Structures are given as C-alpha cells and as structure tokens.
Amino acid sequence: MNVAQPLHKSERMVWIDAARGFAILGIFVVNIGAFSAPYFLYGGGEDAWPTAVDQATQMLIDIFFQASFYTLFSVLFGFGLQILNERLMVKKIAVKPFLYRRLTILIIFGMVHAFLIWHGDILLSYGIIGLFFVAFIYRSDKTILLWGSLMLGVSVFLYTLMLYNVKAFLGSASTSEINRAEKNYSSDNLSAILGQNLNDWLYSNSVFSYLLLATTLLPLFLFGLYLARKRWLHNPREHRDKLLNGWIISLIVFIVLKMGPHLYGNPVWFSYAQDNIGGTASALFYVFSIALLGQSMLGQKLLRPFSYIGRMSLSNYIFQSLFCFVLFYGVGFGLYGSIRPIQAMGIVVLFYVVQILVSKWWLTKFRYGPLEWIWRSLTYKQKQPLRERE
User: Fold this and answer.
1) Fewer C-beta within 10 Å: the chain N or C terminus?
2) Is the dihedral of CA 177, 59, 161, 283 positive or negative?
3) 1-8 LR contacts (CB < 8 Å, sep 24+)
4) Residue 2 half-sphere exposure toward CB, CA atoms < 13 A
C-alpha cells in the first residue's frame, strides 16, 4: 500500500526554503509594530512617533514590508500545497481528504495562536480559506489564473472605490480603543490581556473582513499553485528568461503601487490597492529575485541562513509571537507602548539572528521543527521520525 511521506532533505529546493525564511523576517518586521503598540490597529501612530527617524522607519516598512511578506508566504503556501498534491497523485493517494485533514490541523494551530497568544494570527485564515483552495486543484491553468485575477482585481477595485467615496472620514484614531489596549496589555492580569486580545481579534475579523480576506488570500494561493505547475521555480536556470520577465514586470508594479503613493501623501483610501496589488507584485518580485539569486554559489551562501528559518517556518512564526508576548505584555517585561519603530527594528534583527542560530543547530539534530513535526505526524496519522538519524 502506498503511504504518503514528507519531502526528504535531498528533494528540497533551497531557494524556496530561503524565500519562506525571508517571508518570516518580513512578517516579523510588520507584526512587531502591531504587537508592541495599538496604533497599527486603531491609528494614531503619526502623533505617537513624530520624529523624523521614526517617520522614515514607518515609511520604509510600508513600502518594503507591509503586505509584501504575508503575500509572499501566501504564494509559497499555495506552491507547497500543489507540490504535496503532486506527490499524493503519484502515490495514488486520495488528495482531497489528505489536504482537508492537513488544513483542519492548521486551523486548530491558528485558533490556539489567535486566541491565546496574538489576535493578528494568519494561520486560522490560511486553514479556512485553504479549504476553498482544494476546489481548484484539478482546474486548468487558465481557469486558475482567471479566477485568481478576477477575485483579486474586482475585490480591490470595488473596495478602493468605496474607500475613495468615504475618504473624508478615514484616518482618524480611536482614542478610547487605544487607551483600552494600553491599559489591558500593560496589565499583569492574564485574563485582561486575553480579553483585550479577543476584542482586537473581533475588531479585525468581521464577516465582511473575512470576505475581503478570502478574495485576496485565495488568489495568492492560486498564483502559487500556478507557479508550481509551471515549474519555473523548480528549475530556475531552465526558465531564466521567464523569471527575468516576471522580475521586471513585478518590479515596475512594485515601484508604481508601493512606492508611488508616497509621492502624493500616501492617501489612506488607496491603501487597499497599495497593499493587495502592490503587495502581490512585491511578493512576486521577492520570490523571483530569490530564485534567481539561488542559482549562483554566492547567492546560495547568502540565502542559506534564511533557509534554516524557512525549513522551520511554522515554529519560528509562533516563537516570534511568544517572544513578543513575553516582551511587551504586562505578564512579562511590560514594554507595550514604549518601543519606538526604530527600536523595534533593532529587536527584530537581534531576535531573527538568534532564530537563525537556533534553527541551524536544531536542524543538525532533527529533521523538522517541533511544530512542523507535530503537524506532519497528525497529518500523516503516524509518528514521524524526528531525530536526524532515526
């Protein structure tokens, strides 16, 4: 009987692992701002951080990181599901039940993360929206591109039009919510912290916002599926011309939609298009860049530290949240609301370097990250070998 098995080390594409690791870095850059202060969610950051260096830091984060790395990770998520789909089909194992089980387990991880650690969790959304992705795994390439492009394009156009029509009411900060968040997250009462976390999750995750998220995340999964089918990232040397063309086009859109708005005051009403069209372009630009870079010896050396993180991306993502929970909330060091953006970037660099070193050490002894091992064992319905020599 054929039994599904995880990828062996020799079968992995190092540049894809590096792209995942790079995405985890970018996600951390954005998430630490939302974890350490209420302004990302409720506005008011411009008044709280008026210095030139902090304003410049925020602008650089907005251009190069905001909505560029969860989009990158989303494309890679769809890419990975398609790789898994192909392996299951070769082994003549029922694909849909297997993927549904894998995604259901991810939903459980997401629920724990979202409600017990941080309201900004993305795993729960990945798992839920991924269930709809399964409906596309046997569709043609043309259908996948058409659905992905239409969902993303129509969603962005309609919502941006709506934001433009109410632009006079956008951009105001919610002082009461800011004060409430500062009080509760700074408290040493765990119930108050988790209650505020739930309040913030509900604020961010209405039925309408989930509908918007579905029409932006699902297309990214589909674009990743398409890339996996075309195998451009499997064999970058063979498809170098296609990757270079994609690199140039995505760079142009990246510059126009992510950098361009800052020349005109970065209007709030345009932020949805900036994040979802510009963010998708920047994600593709990054993944094409990494794939091309990974074909040289120097590039491989530069990417190798990121690949350690990428092979343990789930564990490192959750560990970043646990670190921030202890660092910023009152049950830990209580630094909530007291860290400037430029200081936060220093924390990101230091902790990410620690993650690289720990991940490298871990992978010399174990095949998978700890959470990856749990996820795989539950998905394959048998305990997976963990130690490198098992």
Assistant:
1) N
2) negative
3) 2/91, 2/92, 2/93, 3/91, 3/93, 3/380, 4/87, 4/88, 4/91, 4/93, 4/98, 4/380, 5/87, 5/380, 6/368, 6/376, 6/380, 6/384, 7/83, 7/87
4) 10
Residue indicated by tokens 């720990």: 358
* Cα 279 to Cα 282: distance, rounded to the nearest angstrom: 5
Residue 1: its pLDDT value, please? 42
Q: What are phi and psi of 366, to 5 degrees?
A: -130, 155
- Residue 389: pLDDT band (50, 70, 90) is low
Closest CA to 35 of 177, 191, 190, 197: 197
Q: How far is CA 343 from the centre of its chain?
A: 22
- CA distance linking residue 57 with residue 74, whole number of Å: 25
Q: Which residue, 65, 66, 99, is CA-closest to 81? A: 99
* Paired tokens of 297: 């010896």
Specify the pTM.
0.93
Q: What is the pLDDT of residue 106?
A: 97
Give the angle 81-8-242 at the CA atoms, nearest 5°. 55
The single-letter DSSP state of residue 187 is: S
